[in-house]
Amino acid sequence: MNFRAVITAVLALAALSVNAQDIEAGKKKAEACAACHGATGNSPAGAFPTLAGQTARYIYLQLKDYKEGRRKNPMMSAVAQGLEKKDMQDLAAYFAAQKQDRTGFKADQARVEAGAKKAEESLCAMCHLGGMKGQNEVPRLAGQHPEYIIGQLKQFKARERTNDAGNMTSLAQTLSEDDMVNLAHWISALH
After folding, report:
1. Torsion sign across C-alpha atoms 30, 33, 38, 41
2. CA–CA separation, 23 vs 19, rounded Å?
3. Does residue 81 sit in the same domain as residue 130?
4. Could you tell me if 159 and 169 are in contact, meaning their C-beta atoms sit under 8 angstroms apart?
């Protein structure tokens, strides 16, 4: 029994050490991301997503999808081409370890209420969890810039973004532009 406890403790410490190295390596690599996503992954502009506090798995998969052409954006696709698997893992570890700041967006209360109702009707929490906290491959949406949320929903609806196994593409077909704005106000008000 004691032998197992010692081995478990050693393995846990080794994993923490590797993760700390990944975060430090990611911090250095993230310097190139700061102009759009902020030094700590807190984007200063609504056109770019906040990465701080996002799951490492989600960030890694999005970078991989950009590199492999499953997700398209001229800037991000070009950036991802220069990344190796380890680079993507390090960046993901770094941004996931950062604390998400509030965006400063002042959500309209009527739109927040309408967005919450639409989210409940659309069963958003089934994938994104309560409070839109995200999990594994499903992104954290809480506190995200409303402009970014609206833009992504429009891309899903237009089938321009398709790296979602069809889930968001299918859901987006049921959303009006007003629904998208309401959802964005609700999501941005969460934290």
Report:
1. negative
2. 6
3. no
4. yes
- Within its chain, how far is the Cα of 149 from the centroid? 11
User: Residue 120 is part of a domain; what is its CATH number?
Assistant: 1.10.760.10
DSSP state of 132: G
What's the Cα-to-Cα distance from 53 to each of 9, 31, 132, 138, rounded to whole Å? Answer: 27, 17, 12, 13
Full domain range(s) for residue 167: 109-189
* pTM, two decimal places: 0.87
How does pLDDT run across 120-129, given as a tens digit for each residue?
999 999 999 9
For residue 175, how many other CB atoms are within 10 A of its CB? 18
Q: What is the mean pLDDT of the chain?
A: 92
